[in-house]
Design brief:
Length: about 280
Amino acid sequence: MVQFHAEKISEHATRIYGLAGEQMYLVEGTQKAALIDTGSGAGSLRQYVESMTDRPVIVLVTHGHVDHAMGAPEFDTVYMSRKDDYIYVQHCELEVRKRFLSESPRFADVAEEEYIPVTPPDAFLDMEEGDVFDLGGISIEIYACSGHTRGSLCMLIREERTLITGDACNGFTFLFDTYSTGLSTYEKNLRELKSKTAGKFDRIYLSHGPGRDYPAVLLDEVLEVCEDIKNGNVDDVPFESRGRKAHIAKALSKEGGRLDGKTGNIVYNKERIAE
């Protein structure tokens, strides 16, 4: 049986851990709550969330990948960028979800009937930069950062000075798949995100990793990696995922962090640097 667990991380926010270690966030206002991302769609996330809050819940999906959007069909009101509809359609196939979860040591916990049934993406509402969700006393602002996927969105909890980046910018930013942009396009979009959110946040919440707060300088570190890739100042560690080959820009320690002690990193396609 699938079990979730959670930890309160601020006055309004709770971090929820999914089956494969993916991290979701429940943000509560006085009138409603917003669940940011929904994991891999195994086990009833809705039931778990409703045990944590008595407020009506809306869902905001950072992007359409298998480990972020697959629990969304359980909920009544879901927002996701239309630009990621095609990814969601591919990833919601049961075999794709099982293949992803098979990499988790808890895969055996999932019974067949625990997989959340599929809903077509046109059942969701579109979400784009400039949208603001007022939860009552706290609000979530939406910013675009196309790169990891073309519909990737980041979410600013203004009153808590916190930015949730999904997979748009992290310590192992995937930028090598067919649904990703090229490096130069991503760098431009990340610079725009940094400019638009400047002075509005002090910490970042990620969707993967050890489950902690990250400093705002993470955006600068990833932008620095973009420049290093273009200038050839990289370690280029070979990487392969599900048959696709790429390179990790900065070498990693055995613990998974960068050898130089910084956090931001990019896994990229050498043939798409100029795009």
